[in-house]
Amino acid sequence: MQTDLSRRNILITGASSGIGRAVSVAVYESGASVFLLGRNIERLDETAKLCTSTHSAEHKDNSGEVRKIVPISYDLTADPDDIPKLLQRLSSEYGEFSGIVHSAGIEMARPLRSIKTLNLVNTYIINAVTGAMLIKGLSLVGVHSKSGSSAVLISSISASCGNAGLLCYSMSKGAVESCVKTLAIELISSKIRVNCIAPAMIKTPMLEKGTYQDIQSLGDSRKDLVELRHPMGFGEPKDVANAALFLLSDASKYVNGITLFTDGGYAAQ
Q: Are 249 and 30 in contact (CB under 8 A)?
């Protein structure tokens, strides 16, 4: 399968850890220049070191050109209306972008009785609104590649499968998948494909320190049910990164507006 991303600029959000970090490393290894977006510059620098750890000092792609690694400290939620301006600034300095992967987001496990409106709004903004504004930025003239670009948003199996205690999260990810379908059609004339990936539970720091502990707080029966519903166990960040590579590359040039389940059989039950 051809997943060579040489001579391409790819922006990855949430690049400081977990899925975003794994995607960043995989995209760089496939020949692209990577633009690592996150709030913590030190952790972004760690991701940058991981990108180069298995490569020579010259960091050339398959065409012989030197790849770039650009860590960018940026809070996507500070003012989502400014996100397209960020894409314009980056493209004016570094050239057009061939793709984005929106991995930044939050997970929240909380029973309905304790949910406040602000919980729903904040989760929606972080997980869904910022993704739409990133794609808006990519769609601007001079930002996306004239030969074609690919936008990949990270959804979740929770957008399709009911899970008690995950209302905030599942609602926001459902919005992500609706966004993808609409923009996949709207942006065809700009040669921008829009797809998303729906993982089941992936072994990330966010899972281990946040969501899984929240689920455990709902009781042992709930925790056991979550584990049993993953026929192949919890996934690895690399599993999602491989799916992102496919959707960013020319191997998926006729794939548009889909949700690619990366769930080890979760949805098949």
A: yes
* Lookup result for tokens 């794609």: 135
Residues in the chain, pLDDT under 70: 1, 54-64, 205-227
With tokens 């940026």, the residue in question is 74
The pTM (predicted TM-score) of the whole model is: 0.89
Give residue-wise pLDDT tens across range 226-249. Answer: 667 777 778 899 999 999 999 999
**Residue 198 DSSP class:** E
Separation of alpha carbons 180 and 13, rounded Å: 17
Would you give the DSSP letter of residue 191? T
Query: Residue 159 is encoded by which pair of tokens?
Result: 């957008």
Residue whose C-alpha is closest to residue 105's, from 158, 29, 145, 144: 158
First to last CA, the chain: 29
Q: Which two tokens stand for residue 23?
A: 């995607």
Residue appearing with tokens 């991303």: 5
Give the DSSP letter of residue 39. Answer: S
- The residue among 125, 133, 150 whose CA lies nearest residue 83 is 133
Beta bridge partners of 46: none
Side-chain-side CA neighbours of 67 within 13 Å: the count stands at: 29
What tokens appear for 26 in the block?
Answer: 């995989």
Question: Among 51, 96, 55, which residue's Cα sits nearest to residue 71?
Answer: 51
Give which of 167, 163, 168, 197 is closest to 180, Cα–Cα.
197
